[in-house]
Amino acid sequence: MSTLNEFLVQKKEAALAKLEKAQQQSDVKSERYYARARALGRSGVREIRIRDFQVISDSPTDFAGYNLGPNSPELQLGVLGSCLTHITLIQAAVRGVSLESLEVEISGDLHPLAGQLGYESIPVYPHNISYQIHIVSNESSETINALHEEIERVCPIYNLLKNPQDIQGEVVLSKPLAD
């Protein structure tokens, strides 16, 4: 059976090459990421476009959805899981940590009455978020603990959620075209 160790060789080469390229640039700038989401006609399904990819987000049927995809809070937990998984792979690769397999589980709470009268103290966002990284490895507990510390130190989405962020927003109003 194939394990992640073969992949980690490739990941290490790619991670070190990307780092070296950035270090050689005289004027390194932050990368800007873009996503676009829109509600589709009669269904209300949310189409998320990122680069050449499309992701569908929808509500369960009990909330006027068609259950065609995960809802936004579920996607957010999935994004955290994806990022923790990716950063674990990168850190294991550059540190030479052997991984047979890797799986991340994420959970969080979202109360249906959050913010409503009598429930004002309950957050309107996912909270009580927790994760477990399941690793199969012959490495020592000390090695895996050091890996975990580094994962939490450098994981972008983990740190985005842990640290308050300023978000700027505006509404751009357009009038419908006359028939």
From TrEMBL:
InterPro entries referenced in this protein's UniProt entry, alphabetically: KH_dom-like_a/b, OsmC/Ohr_fam, OsmC/Ohr_hydroprdx_reductase, OsmC/Ohrsf
Taxonomy, superkingdom: Bacteria
Coiled-coil region list: 5-32
Keyword Endoplasmic reticulum: no
UniProt keyword annotations, A-Z: Coiled coil
PANTHER family the UniProt entry points to: HYDROPEROXIDE REDUCTASE
Name the UniProt record assigns to this protein: OsmC family protein
Lineage: Bacteria, Bacillati, Bacillota, Bacilli, Bacillales
